[in-house]
Specification:
about 300 residues, alpha+beta, FAD/NAD(P)-binding domain, 2 domains, five-stranded mixed β-sheet, three-stranded antiparallel β-sheet, about 30% helix, about 25% strand, elongated
Length: about 300
């Protein structure tokens, strides 16, 4: 039997094989991705977002695949970052700015570029293993080109080459740097790593369009969740909503609204149906690395 649950907006049809609704607090990268994944496997989902759009943040951020720019973190953390970066590229391929990262150590720095080589080799080996396990993980290029070293003689040669209009190889990307970089101010080798940038604008557009088209996800903009309370039937999600849905449709920001705009409490009851008294639907809260599900 298909159960239909009204959550204060459009009706959401719950998959009869997964008769519960998942509530997600926060529409950032983690919350939007979780909503996409749940809805993609047929689970009814409600996403609460205090703002008027998903995945707000700086326009560009860097994946830092492997964390090669952070000498203070461990190799295990670097490998975890590499895996997370690959997962991000796979989830949002159109949000990637496919330009490599150059690691250049100035002569004034106490560190040496050679100290990075064991880490880079370990990351290359792990990246190769991930591709062997699943060919779809090859999103950062071929593992043989995961990083490339450039010595001063290489840079001097590249400085004589014409500037490329559309660079594709590590050598071509380094030509502009060789032309304009004061070569005597840095230690060698320089390292080019296949780490890409992330366009938050494109990521937000991808998530927004996909969730808007999903019949199993209801996004509640303008809802700031204040309390999560476990009930006999599931969870009670209490949120504060400013009663200005017409203003939202005109893309009016909260900061421009008058102080006299009324604020009302809106309570959304997320119900579970026919799943037994000992079963709870999972609740995800963005910004944390855990989920609460099952009995306490």
């Amino acid at each position: 039997m298909t159960d239909t649950i009204s959550l204060g907006g459009k009706e959401n049809v719950v998959n009869e094989n997964r008769p519960f609704t998942v509530g997600i607090v926060g529409g950032g990268v983690a919350g939007s991705t979780a909503a996409l994944k749940f809805a993609g496997v047929g689970i009814n989902t409600v996403l609460f977002e205090a703002g008027r759009s998903l995945v707000s943040g700086p326009p560009i951020c860097h994946l830092h695949a492997g964390g090669n720019l952070y000498r203070e973190i461990s190799e295990a953390q670097c490998i975890a970052l590499l895996e997370q970066s690959i997962a991000t590229v796979r989830a949002y391929p159109h949000a990637m700015n496919r330009r490599p990262t150059v690691i250049a150590v100035p002569v004034s720095d106490d560190g040496e570029p050679a100290h990075l080589l064991p880490r880079l080799e370990a990351l290359t080996a792990h990246y190769r293993k991930l591709i062997e396990d699943d060919a779809e993980n090859a999103v950062l290029g071929h593992p043989d080109q995961y990083f490339t070293l450039f010595f001063k003689a290489d840079m001097e040669h590249l400085a004589t080459q014409p500037l490329p209009s559309s660079p594709t190889t590590a050598q071509e990307w380094m030509i502009p740097l060789a032309h304009y970089m004061p070569l005597d101010n840095f230690k060698y080798p320089l390292v080019v790593v296949q780490e890409y940038g992330l366009s938050v604008f494109r990521l937000a557009a991808t998530a927004s369009l996909a969730l808007d088209q999903s019949p199993l996800c209801d996004v509640k903009f303008g809802h700031r969740v204040e309390a999560l309370t476990e009930t006999e039937n599931g969870w009670l999600v209490e949120s504060v909503m400013k009663t200005v849905s017409d203003a939202l449709s005109r893309s009016t920001t909260w900061s421009t609204l008058p102080d006299s705009v009324p604020v009302s409490w809106t309570t959304w009851q997320i119900l579970r149906a026919n799943v037994g008294s000992n079963t709870k639907p999972p609740m995800w809260r963005t910004g944390r690395h855990s989920r609460a599900s099952g009995r306490k």
